[in-house]
What we know:
The chain is an alpha/beta fold. Helix content is 44%, strand content 13%.
Amino acid sequence: MATLVELEREAHVCVRCPLSAGRTNVVFGVGDPNASLMLVGEGPGRDEDLAGEPFVGRSGQLLDRLLRQEVGLERRQVYIANVVKCRPPGNRDPRPEEIASCRPYLEAQIGMVGPDVLVTLGNFASRLLLDTSEGIRRLRGRTYRFGERSLVPTYHPAAALRGGGGEVLAEMRADLVRAKRALAAAGVPA
Ligand code: URA
């Protein structure tokens, strides 16, 4: 079986979809390769495309803060990946065929890292992994079974940065507390 390092090497030369033509860097994933908690975002933005690392811009700074405050974990203690590994031009939404091309990478990452708990950030990651067309507003607020793992859908941090009267942020915090509880239920020491 391929390792995470081998899979990343493969992704770095991937041309399975047209997003490869516009990328500066492939943004494969970052963090502890044996993490108990894995976060899944949508796709790289400008900062991530330049850095080659997920969630390094404003959304990432908020995510790091929420992780620390609500779960008690630092970025290096979790694993972070996206639905698509290359930046959609102008930060447009990833297209269904791009998501489908990139899906095997995410599925393999989940299998190799083997987290007890997944947190999906926003519509794209939540819909893909829960196999639904339902929106995040309706999906969030509970913990789902995902095979042998737990899955907690929440908003994308960019939604909290856009405002929403603080309600989105409060709900994100509550969802991350759910993730913390799911980790405890899986026997992960706090
Ligand atoms: N938004 C995402 O969904 N992923 C990133 O890596 C950065 C911003």
